[in-house]
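INFO batch 0412 | record 1 of 1 | parsing
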Amino acid sequence: MSVKVRFAPSPTGLLHVGNVRTAIVNWLFARKMGGVFFLRIDDTDLERSTQQYEDGLREDLLWLGLNWDETAKQSERFARYDEAVDKLKADGRLYPCYETSQELDLKRKIQLGQGRPPLYDREGLGLTDQQKSSFEAEGRKAHWRFKLDIPARVEWEDLVKGHQSFDIAALSDPILVRGDGTYLYTLPSVVDDIDFEITHIMRGEDHSANSAVQAQIFEALGAKTPEMAHFSLLTGAAGEGLSKRLGSASIKSYREDEGLEAMSIVSLLSRLGSSEPIEPFTNIEPLIESFDFSHYSRSTAKFDPKDLEILNAKILHVTEFDAVKDRLPEQASEGFWNLARANIKKIADVDEWMKIVNGPITPIIEDADFISQAAALLPKGDWDDQTWKTWTTAVKEQTGAKGKMLFMPLRQAVTGLDHGPEMATLLPLIGETRVRARLNGENL
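INFO prediction complete | emitting tokens
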């Protein structure tokens, strides 16, 4: 089966956790099926859309490893949407309405006060030509609603949520064209899905009602509705709705401000809400291979930023030197990376350990006599991973110190810390000159 999916962000802001999750699952499915991942820029809102945001979202996707096979911009396709409007008007499926927003709001309040659902009453369908002309003379501009086929039920087999059935009578005829002639999301999206032959629409479950409406628009335009998959929404760690603090954390901020690895984000969001375990993947291939709609739950998925930090550390702990060497300080060797990676949470943390190696640090010396004896026993010549053992054995034999009383004062004097990587590996990287100076209390 030929598969083509789309991710359709609006360049009116930064990509964040919620919409990137949609991009990830679409991309994984496309790659699993050997299909096409289509990037559609939904920039019909010409006032709010900017090239800066568009460039930013493309940068974010590529940083995450989500390359696209085809792309298009809605702002370049208005002529096609106009054609669809003309067809719907000619077929009697698009009709003009002249209510102001205040009048519509009043209607909704009256309906709610009467215990009825706030649905549009289809007043526009009964307007005479004279009434329309009168409204136009007042300076009102028509907005255009799509006439839903009522009574009817729209049903489909959702690839995540199972059988779905919507009573169209419970929905208002949607506005497709505003009074100023600009398009809302619904119609351009359907026209694009038809023209670009999208086979699967995959998005959040908050779009389920939109999908029911769009199914009738597909039919009205003479096209088959793509298959549907609606994923559960994300909540906070305690089950609360995602706040702006959590849900709107941008991918750019995670990359530039938080310093997270791209794969920590992909590892978490690809498995969130599924039965598959969340693991620290260093590349995306296993996630492609394991992708399966049946693994995703219908219940809400909980997003906790702390999970990103945990995954990030685990990923770095197993990342090989060649994969990060271009992001490390110039003087960082493979040996240094292998030492540091087990002790960092983010790549920027290597700076702390680079400082321990190259200085300057402030030695911690609480027992000057003990450190003086240890300094006299420090081996000379070429150092290797056995030097620490040779030195501490000699110090133990002369002073009688052992265990923590032996190792901790030496670590504190050499590194200025009471924790850190294995000293057997660290000592040769610091080197004899700096170690001797630090044992003498010098900030080197």
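INFO post-check: The first helix runs from residue 17 to 32.
INFO record closed
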